[in-house]
Amino acid sequence: MAEAGNYGSRYPYFYGPEGRLVLVDSALEAVKRGSTTIGIKTPSFALLASHIKPVRPLIDPAEKIFVIDGHAGATGSGYIGDILQLIEELRLEAQKHRLNFESPIDVGSLAKHLGSFLHNYTIYAVRPQAASVIVAGVDQTGIQLYQVDPSGTFMRGSGFAIGQSSDIALDVVQREYSADMSVEQAVDLSNKAIEKALGERPVVEVGVVTAQNQHFQKLL
Fold first, then answer.
1. Nearest C-alpha neighbor of 105 from the set 76, 144, 158
2. What is the pLDDT of residues 93-128, one digit of tens each?
């Protein structure tokens, strides 16, 4: 069998010299070139915001915010084809749960399922999905926000940023986040974070779910 680190091997080159998964690192680099995307959660609501990149004339921009089920939504950054496949995987899992249990799936189970789905791509000799996804929703435990990465790692938190210059955007969110902010203030903060990351005024698509109405919807 070929030795690890031999790029000329006919076997897949999984691990780098530092023990990192090479293909996953490449997928994460693709995510970093995607649309700057924000997730913000407070006890009252969760908000998703994603930059709509300019397109060529006569071409409609791609949808960035997706309804997964009545109580949950998601967005992503990376290759749009991969994002769409992951969105459909989330929708299918939510529908299966409703059919089997006649109740909406909890948001943590959605994130865990997507993490397992993505992790499978790291085990076999296939290209990992070049997309990170942020999932927002409300369930019996309250408002929830998760980030799921190409490695299958999923995290719960109150603020996430993925995509182009996400470190800059996340720094803005972390500095100005407040647990008692309003939806309008969170929209302004996400716009400010994306604008700071890109260095220009962005066009942003936004979706939100609140503890009051428990319904994920896009904001115009």
1. 144
2. 999 999 999 999 999 999 999 999 999 988 877 888
The CATH homologous superfamily of the domain defined by 22-219? Aminohydrolase, N-terminal nucleophile (Ntn) domain (3.60.20.10)
Torsion of CA 53, 114, 216, 32, to 10 degrees: -20
Residue 53: pLDDT over 90: no
Give the whole-angstrom CA distance, residue 29 versus residue 78.
Answer: 9
User: Please, which residues have CB within 8 angstroms of residue 124's CB and are 6 or more apart in sequence?
Assistant: none
- Cβ contacts of 120 within 8 Å, gap of 6 or more: 152
pLDDT, mean over the chain? 91
Put residue 103 in one of left, alpha, beta given phi > 0 → left and psi -120 to 50 → alpha.
beta
pLDDT above 70: percentage of residues in the chain: 92
Listed in sequence order, the residues at least 6 apart from 72 whose beta carbon sits closer than 8 Å to its beta carbon are: 90, 94, 104, 105, 107, 110, 135, 136, 137, 138, 209, 216
What is the domain partition of the chain in residue ranges? 22-219
Average pLDDT over residues 177-203: 97
